[in-house]
Design brief:
By secondary structure, this protein is of the alpha+beta class. It folds into two domains: 123 residues, Double Stranded RNA Binding Domain (2-Layer Sandwich); 66 residues, Ribosomal Protein S5, domain 2 (2-Layer Sandwich), CATH 3.30.230.10. 34% of the residues lie in helices and 23% in strands. It contains eight helices and ten strands. Strands 1, 4, 5, 6 and 7 form a five-stranded antiparallel β-sheet that branches. Strands 8-9-10 form a three-stranded antiparallel β-sheet. Strands 2-3 form a two-stranded antiparallel ribbon. Strand 5 and strand 6 form a beta hairpin. Helix 3 runs parallel beside helix 5. The protein is flat, with a radius of gyration of 21 Å. It starts with a helix and ends with a helix. Bound molecules: zinc ion (ZN). The site of zinc ion has 7 residues, from loops.
Length: 246
């Protein structure tokens, strides 16, 4: 019996040695297709200004509170990275489904069940600009395209800084002060943290903050944080506050 236990401990040690301490998170990086931007025919005045080169930075658009109605505006001004939030779950018995990027819902009709897929995408440049969008469709892939497009239209600029009393650097690795946001029942408070802390927050909000370019943060969450759509909404509401006050 003891021999068996010893063996399992040895095996566990081997397994532990193989897994790296910090798991690398894979974020899909798709280069901006120059073809779509060059063949873009802008319809709005803002789009024409961007295409002709009169507006050169995304901050110029955001500080003047201009409404972005074409996703190519964001594509031509900054190079963005994309990621999907896990909003749904695959089918499993006893509630044991695995987290998935597609949320599948059903409407009951006379003809049968009509499926709808929704997905949530985030885009960001890791330099203070981030956007979240929700897309719904009858198929999986169109819902992702819609989500990415909406995320680009809803891009915000995040005020970064170093607001922790214990850290006297001037680098924008955290946020300048505590901010709070809510969406549904979820309330999220983001608190500045010193350098080297990392992102002390749920995994889905971590993706948003990483693409926004924030490296260190403490957080406090209240409510049904497992509802990914509401957690993401609360996180974005909090990040919006950081820019508003200054
Ligand atoms: Zn600092």
């Amino acid at each position: 019996m003891t021999l068996k236990i010893m063996k399992s401990v040895e095996e566990a040690k081997d397994e532990y040695a193989e897994t790296p301490l910090v798991p690398e998170v894979e974020i899909k990086v798709e280069p901006v297709k120059q073809d779509t931007v060059s063949s873009w025919n802008p319809k709005t005045q803002l789009g024409k200004d961007v295409k002709s080169g009169r507006i050169k930075s995304i901050d110029e658009v955001l500080t003047n509170h201009k409404k972005i109605l074409e996703s190519e505006i964001v594509d031509s001004l900054i190079s963005v990275e994309k990621d999907l939030l896990l909003v749904g779950q695959s089918k499993g018995k006893f509630g044991g489904g695995k987290r998935r990027a597609w949320r599948q819902t059903q409407k009951k009709t006379m003809e049968g069940n009509v499926l709808t897929f929704s997905s949530m995408a985030i885009i960001g440049d890791r330099n203070g600009h981030v956007g979240v969008g929700l897309g719904k469709s009858k198929e999986t892939l169109p819902s992702r395209e819609k989500a990415i497009r909406r995320a680009k239209l809803q891009i915000i600029s995040v005020k970064r800084g170093c607001g922790h009393f214990d850290c006297s650097c001037k680098e924008p690795h955290s946020i300048p002060h505590t901010v709070e946001g809510r969406c549904g029942s979820v309330r999220i408070r983001l608190i500045p943290a010193p350098q080297g802390t990392g992102l002390v927050i749920g995994d889905e909000c971590k993706k948003i903050l990483r693409l926004a370019g924030i490296r260190d943060i403490y957080s406090y969450t209240q409510g049904q944080g497992r509802t990914t759509i509401n957690s993401a909404g609360a996180c974005m509401a909090a990040l919006k506050q950081s820019g508003k006050l200054l």
